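User: Please predict the structure of the protein below. I'd like the answer in structure-token form so I can feed it into my own downstream comparison script.

Assistant: Understood. Taking the following sequence of 256 residues as input:
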Amino acid sequence: MSLPLSDRGLLLGDGLFETLLAVDGVPVDWTEHMARLVLGCAALGLPAPAEADVRGAAQAALSTAGLDTGRAALRITWTAGSGGRGLDRPEPCAPVLFATAAPSPAPAGPLRLITAATQRNAGSIASRHKTLSYLDNVLARREAILAGADEAVMLNTDGQVACAAAANLFWVAGGRLETPSVDCGVLAGITRAKVLAWAKAAGAPAAEVAVGPDALAKAEAVFITNSLTGARSAQSLDGRPLAEWPLLAKLSAALG
């Protein structure tokens, strides 16, 4: 498909997306991702797409890319469409749906992390939903790459630990698993929820917290999570070596 130059997603970042892992042509955690997309639509005042349409677009994207087997990154995009003057949407708006797919090899090895100067706006609705306004994340990742690292840790505008540029963040301190609270401007990640559920079932102490970067400076182990990589360990943060959490292998096996 061709996207009109007047599309609000292109011009204003007005829209949402979901990125899913697909294995052998089957999207993983489909129900959870679609539920989050619907919640995002409600938050942004957009009509939600019909699930059948989304599934059709997803399967077509996988087939077109020749990714009916193996691992694939499947992206669903839902823009506010065209029309309106300036910031104002037309009423009713006519959203545009499209999907793309690309190979997604299993991640190899631990990550090098740095703390980015680019901050996350905890007070913005965009921090809690997968909107098309992702410039802060782009800039944070660019900082990491230019520093010779793989991924960036982002603090929020209150100086609290928030997330990675494209993932949720976990660390272990004093034997307790911790992750930033969604109130810190954190996306409620699908894999994040699975990790917290696994920890509860496994009897591993875990907590959602609002803390500053000193908490990471004292962490024994750090890992990130998202739908494509699962749980991926960090080997260093700002040059400080980190150990791997002894329970990470069991967690990764449970995540699949």
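That's the full token string. The chain has two domains: 8-103, 111-255.
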